[in-house]
Specification:
- Chain B: Pfam families: Transket_pyr (PF02779), Transketolase_C (PF02780).
- The complex is a heterodimer of chains A (about 400) and B (about 325).
- By secondary structure, chain A is an alpha/beta fold.
- Helix content of chain A is about 50%, strand content about 10%.
- Chain A folds into 2 domains: about 325 residues, Rossmann fold (3-Layer(aba) Sandwich), CATH 3.40.50.970; about 35 residues.
- In chain A, the strands form 2 sheets. Chain A has a 6-stranded parallel β-sheet with strand order 1-7-8-4-3-2, sandwiched between helices. A two-stranded antiparallel ribbon of chain A has the order 5-6.
- Chain B has about 325 residues and is an alpha/beta fold.
- Chain B folds into 2 domains: about 190 residues, 3-Layer(aba) Sandwich (Rossmann fold); about 130 residues, 3-Layer(aba) Sandwich (Rossmann fold).
- Chain B is built from 12 helices and 14 strands.
- In chain B, α8 crosses α12 and α9 packs across α10.
- The longest helix of chain B is centred in the N-terminal third of the chain and has 15 residues.
- Chain B is globular, with a radius of gyration of 19 Å.
- Classes of the chains: A alpha/beta (about 400), B alpha/beta (about 325).
- The complex binds thiamine diphosphate.
- The site of thiamine diphosphate has 14 residues of chain A, from β5.
- The site of thiamine diphosphate (TPP) has 14 residues of chain A, from β5.
C-alpha cells in the first residue's frame, strides 16, 4: 500500500506503535530464592514452602542434579560412539527438572515432552529404559503406569492436551469415589518448552484447563531456544504472563534455582489438588549445550551468552550453599561423584544389552482387539520368513 | 421392534451406553443444550448432566486431545466433530497420538475414544460440510473406521464402538439421519464380529459394495437392474477398517463381477483398496475388472452441482453395464 493513501501523520503513529510492540514485553517478576552466588534470599509467599525442604532433601536435590548431568554426558558420549541414534541433552536444566519432579507426589501423573530425563530420574524410571527410544529399539520404553510418568512425546505440545484430559478424569474420579475413599488427591504436570508454547495445542489445553478448572500444572521450561529460534520469535510477552489471559496464575521462577522451583511447583500442585484450578509455571533457564546431538549451536548463538548462563549454573550454586552452610562435606561430594560414575557405567552396559524387539511384537500391539488385517499380514510375514529358513536348510 | 430414524437410533444407542457405562461421556461443540447441530445428542444433557454430556470449547484438537487424556485415566469418551470438514484441526491428535498410543506402549495403554463425524454430501450444504475423509483415517494403523447405513446398525454399532478398546472413528451418513428403519433393541443380531460386512441383497450376476450413505443408492440400482433381467448382490461393508474382504471375496466368487461405490474421491480411495485385494484374491473368478464409482479428484463441489459429483443410481447402472459387457 502506498504511503500517499495514508492520512498525514499516520506513518509516524504506525512507526511508534510498531516500536512499542517490538519493545521487550510486559515486566515480569521472577521468583528466586537461591542466587547464583549461593546465598538464600526470601520471598513473601514461597519462603514458607522453601522452609519445608530439610537439609537431607537439599542433598537429594544435589545428588539427583549431579546424577542426571552425569547421565546426560554418558548418553551424549554413547550417541557420539554410534550407540544411540540421537540424544537430547538437558545440561543447564537440572534444577528445573529435579526441583519440579521432587515437588510432585506419587499419585500425580506427569506428561513429559522428550527432554525430561531429570524428572524421569525422580519418578524412578529406569534410565536404561529411557534410552530405548533413542537407541531405536522402542517407541516408548517404560510402563507409564508404574511411576505415573508418561511416555515421551515427539510431536510438540500434543501431550499438553492429554494432561488436561487426564486431569479432567481425576476430577471425575473424585466425584465417583465413595465418601470414605482415602485416596490422596492428585494433580497432573504437563512439561513443554518455550518453542512448543507457540503450538495451538498449548492454547487449547489452557482454554480447556481454565474452562473446567482442571487440576493441572503447566510447566514450561523456557530454555531460550527452540532449536535455532530464540524465544522472542515465539512470544512478545513473558510466557508466564500469558496465563493471565486464560484466567489462572502464571509464575516465572528462576529455573536454575532448585529451591525456588521446588517451592513454586509444590505451591502450584497444592493449588491444583485442592480444586483451585490450573497454574502455569515458566522456569526461566537455559539449554547450555546443543538442542540435540544433531544440532550445532555455534551457527546461531553467541558463545558469550552460553558463558553468561554457565555463571548461573544450578549445581554450582547449590554446592556453594551446601558448603557455606556446612550441610555437606567433601565426603558427600566424593560420594555423589562416585554414584554418578556408577550410574554411567550401568547405563553404558545396559545400553549394549538392550534387546532388539521382534517385529512380530509390533504386529501384536497395533490394536487392543483382534484385527483381521494384522492377522493376515503377520501370517504372510511368517510364511515369507519361513521361506528363508527352508532355503537355508536346503543349502546346509 | 421400534421404528426410528438413524439420528434417533444413535441417540438411543448413546443413551444406552451412558446408562450402562458410568465411565462413558460425550464431548463436543454444542452437543449439550442444543443437542448437537443435528440433534443427535438431543435431551441427553437433561438426563445425564453436564459432566457426562460436555459442551466443550470450540477446539477440535482440544476435544480429541483431552479425550485421549480422559481415556488414559480410564474413561470412555465419545467426541462429536460437528462436521466432516472440521476434523482436520484434530487430525494431528487422531493420527499421531490416538492411533499410536497402544502400539507405543506395547499394549500397556489403551485409549478407547470414539469420534463421531457426520459425513458425506447430498444435503445441499456449503463448503466443508459435505466431505468424506474416511480414507485418510483408514490409512492410519491403530484406528477402526465404521459407518452404519441403517437405524438398527446405528443403534448397535455406536454401542459396540464405545465398548471397543481401540479408538473408533464413527462416520455418520448425515444425509440418512432421517431415514427410518426398524430397530430391535433387544437383540443386536450380530455375529461374533459386530462389524462384519452384511450381504443386504442376494444376486448372481454382479456384486455392488457400498457403505454408509450409498447403501440405499446401491440397493436402488440393484432393484432397477431387475428390469434388465439382472440379479445383483449388494454388500453393506459397515466397517471400512478392518475391511471384511472375506465376505466380498465370497460374493465375487459367486457373481464374477464387482462394483465399488463411495462418495469419497475415487483416486486413492477405499474402492482402490478393495479392487486391488479382490484382484489378488479372486483373479481367476473375475469376469471383468473391478469398477469404482466415486467422487472426482476435486474439492467437494458447490451444492448446486453436487448431483453431478455424487454416485447415484445411473452412475452405478452405467458401471454395471460396463462390467457386464466384458
Ligand atoms: C509439531 C512439531 N514440529 C516440529 C518439531 C521439530 N522440533 C523438535 S524440537 C523443536 C524445538 C522445540 O523447542 P522447545 O519447545 O523450546 O523445547 P526444547 O527442545 O528447547 O526443550 C522442533 C522444532 C516437532 N518435534 N514437533
Amino acid at each position: 500500500m502506498g504511503s500517499t493513501q495514508l492520512p498525514p501523520g499516520t506513518e509516524e503513529t504506525l512507526a511508534a506503535a510498531t516500536a512499542k510492540a517490538a519493545a521487550p514485553g510486559e515486566p515480569v517478576e521472577m521468583v528466586q530464592l537461591l542466587g547464583p552466588d549461593g546465598t538464600l534470599g526470601s520471598d513473601p509467599v514461597f519462603s514458607d514452602y522453601a522452609k519445608r525442604i530439610d537439609p537431607e532433601k537439599l542433598r537429594v536435590f544435589y545428588t539427583d542434579m549431579a546424577k542426571i548431568r552425569r547421565f546426560d554426558q554418558e548418553a551424549t558420549a554413547l550417541q557420539r560412539q554410534g550407540e544411540l541414534a540421537l540424544w537430547v541433552p538437558l545440561t543447564g536444566q537440572e534444577a528445573a527438572q529435579i526441583g519440579s519432579g521432587h515437588a510432585s507426589q506419587s499419585q500425580d501423573y506427569i506428561f513429559p515432552t522428550y527432554r525430561e530425563h531429570g524428572v524421569a530420574l525422580v519418578r524412578n524410571v529406569d534410565l536404561a529404559e529411557l534410552l530405548k527410544q533413542f537407541r531405536g529399539v522402542s517407541n516408548g520404553g517404560w510402563d507409564p503406569r508404574e511411576n505415573n510418568f508418561h511416555l515421551y512425546t515427539l510431536v510438540l505440545a500434543a501431550q499438553t492436551l492429554h494432561a488436561v484430559g487426564y486431569a479432567m478424569g481425576i476430577q471425575r474420579d473424585q466425584k465417583l469415589a465413595s465418601a470414605d475413599s482415602t485416596d490422596p488427591k492428585a494433580a497432573v504436570i504437563a512439561y513443554f518448552g518455550d518453542g512448543a508454547s507457540s503450538e495451538g495445542d498449548v492454547h487449547e489445553s489452557m482454554v480447556f484447563a481454565a474452562s473446567y478448572n482442571a487440576p493441572v500444572v503447566f510447566f514450561c521450561q523456557n530454555n531460550h531456544w527452540a532449536i535455532s529460534v530464540p524465544t522472542e520469535v515465539q512470544t512478545k510477552v513473558p510466557l508466564a504472563n500469558r496465563a493471565k489471559g486464560y484466567g489462572f496464575p502464571g509464575i516465572r521462577v528462576d529455573g536454575n534455582d532448585v529451591i525456588a522451583v521446588h517451592a513454586v511447583t509444590e505451591w502450584a500442585l497444592e493449588h491444583a489438588r485442592e480444586g483451585r484450578g490450573p497454574v502455569l509455571i515458566e522456569a526461566y533457564t537455559y539449554r547450555v549445550g546443543a538442542h540435540t546431538t544433531a544440532d550445532d549451536p555455534t551457527k546461531y548463538r553467541e558463545s558469550a551468552e552460553e558463558a553468561a548462563w554457565r555463571e548461573k549454573d544450578p549445581l554450582d550454586r547449590l554446592e556453594k550453599y551446601l558448603r557455606a552452610e556446612g550441610l555437606a562435606d567433601e565426603a558427600f561430594f566424593d560420594q555423589v561423584k562416585a554414584d554418578g560414575d556408577e550410574l554411567a557405567k550401568y547405563v553404558r552396559s545396559t545400553t549394549h544389552g538392550l534387546e532388539v524387539p521382534d517385529i512380530r511384537d509390533a504386529f501384536a500391539s497395533v490394536y487392543a482387539e483382534q484385527h483381521p488385517l494384522i492377522a493376515e499380514e503377520l501370517a504372510w510375514f511368517e510364511e515369507y520368513s519361513a521361506g528363508f529358513e527352508s532355503d537355508e536348510e536346503a543349502a546346509n | 421392534m421400534a421404528t426410528m430414524t438413524i439420528a434417533k437410533a444413535i441417540n438411543e444407542g448413546l443413551r444406552a451406553s451412558l446408562t450402562n457405562n458410568p465411565k462413558s461421556l460425550l464431548m463436543g461443540e454444542d452437543i449439550g443444550h442444543l443437542g448437537g447441530v443435528y440433534r443427535v445428542t438431543d435431551g441427553l444433557i437433561k438426563e445425564f448432566g453436564d459432566e457426562r454430556v460436555v459442551d466443550t470449547p470450540l477446539a477440535e484438537s482440544g476435544i480429541v486431545g483431552t479425550a485421549i487424556g480422559l481415556a488414559l485415566r480410564g474413561y470412555s469418551p465419545v467426541c462429536e466433530i460437528q462436521f466432516d470438514g472440521f476434523v482436520y484441526p484434530a487430525f494431528n491428535q487422531i493420527t499421531t497420538q490416538l492411533a499410536k498410543i497402544h502400539a507405543r506402549s506395547l499394549g500397556k495403554l489403551t485409549v478407547p475414544v470414539v469420534i463421531r463425524i457426520p459425513y458425506g454430501g447430498g444435503i445441499g450444504s456449503i463448503e466443508h460440510h459435505s466431505e468424506s475423509p474416511e480414507a485418510l483415517f483408514a490409512h492410519t494403523a491403530g484406528l477402526r473406521i465404521i459407518s452404519p447405513s441403517n437405524a438398527h446398525d446405528a443403534y448397535w454399532m455406536i454401542q459396540k464402538a464405545i465398548e471397543c478398546q481401540d479408538p473408533v472413528i464413527f462416520f455418520e451418513p448425515k444425509r440418512r439421519y432421517w431415514l427410518k428403519g426398524e430397530v430391535d433393541v433387544e437383540n443386536a443380531g450380530l455375529s461374533e464380529d459386530p462389524f462384519k460386512a452384511h450381504v443386504v441383497r442376494e444376486g448372481t450376476d454382479a456384486t455392488i459394495v457400498a457403505y454408509g450413505p450409498l447403501v440405499p443408492v446401491a440397493l436402488a440400482a440393484a432393484n432397477a437392474a431387475v428390469e434388465d433381467g439382472r440379479s445383483i448382490e449388494v454388500i453393506d461393508l459397515r466397517s471400512i477398517s478392518p475391511l471384511d474382504f472375506d465376505t466380498v471375496e465370497a460374493s465375487v466368487k459367486k457373481t464374477g463381477r464387482l462394483i465399488v461405490a463411495h462418495e469419497a474421491p475415487t483416486f486413492g480411495g477405499i474402492g482402490g483398496e478393495i479392487a486391488a485385494r479382490i484382484s489378488e484374491r479372486a483373479f481367476l473368478h473375475l469376469e471383468a475388472p473391478v469398477i469404482r464409482v466415486g467422487g472426482f479428484h476435486m474439492p467437494y463441489p458447490v451444492a448446486k452441482v453436487e448431483e453431478d459429483y455424487l454416485p447415484d443410481i445411473d452412475k452405478i447402472l452405467e458401471a454395471l453395464d460396463r462390467s457386464l459387457s466384458y
